[in-house]
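Hi F.,

I've been meaning to write this up properly since the lab meeting, where we talked about keeping a consistent format for the predictions we share between groups. The idea is simple: the sequence comes first, exactly as it goes in, then the structure tokens exactly as they come out, then a line or two of notes. No screenshots and no reformatting. I'm using this chain as the first example so we have something concrete to point to.
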Amino acid sequence: MARIRSFDLFRMAMRALLLQSTWNYERQQGVGWAYSLEPALERVIPDERARCERLAEHTAYFNTQPTLASIALGVAAALEERRAAGAPIDEAGMTRVKNALGSSLAATGDRLFWLTLRPLAACVGAMLAFGGLARGAIAFWLCYNSFHLTIRFLGVGWGYRGGPEAVATRIKGRLERLTEWTGLAGCVVLGIFNAQLIASGGTPRPLIFQLVLLAGIGVGFVMAQRPRPSATEWALGAAVLCLVAGWTRGA
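Output, unedited:
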């Protein structure tokens, strides 16, 4: 039996970039998951008919945080390799593993990417935007994607080599620590950004501006305690804060 190669894992990571391109309410990421896993199945299941049947199994419902889905893909590839070698792994067992990984990685990934990394990247971009909007946009893109793309491409290999046990213990622990360190970095950057807003160029802003900024930060922290503030709520809140700040500056 052929073993999965590094190039197969790379192809899976590339395809995982399109994981949500066929998202739907019935199966959510299921079709994209099967498409991403196909390179591994091509390697371990030479018979086309059997491979198509196995691929159809993987189009069932699946959903998790999109970036960390690469780790789950690596685990699934390893299990399919064992399954092709004769290990007692059936469709029901594969489904249980996928569901467990999806829930666990979603809980970890949402906190790491949506509630920690994205605000950090936004603060870095906004802070550098004072020197030019293009520079701020590039900084935001680099800050977010340096983490996102690294984990997306390396994650397939982590999952493949570690298996479900490593994801549940070692890999998840590392992601939790990364979330903590990213959160601390975000607090530091937010403090610098606020200082830059309050005393731009060394001249303190009017007191009303400082009070509005403080109120906005307080509301933001309160909203952040919710399970998952939507992007629309954050955008509307930021827009209102900017309008009020602009009005106080012109007053």
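Notes:
The chain has a mean pLDDT of 85.
The chain has two domains: 6-204, 205-251.

If this format works for you, I'll send the rest the same way.

G.
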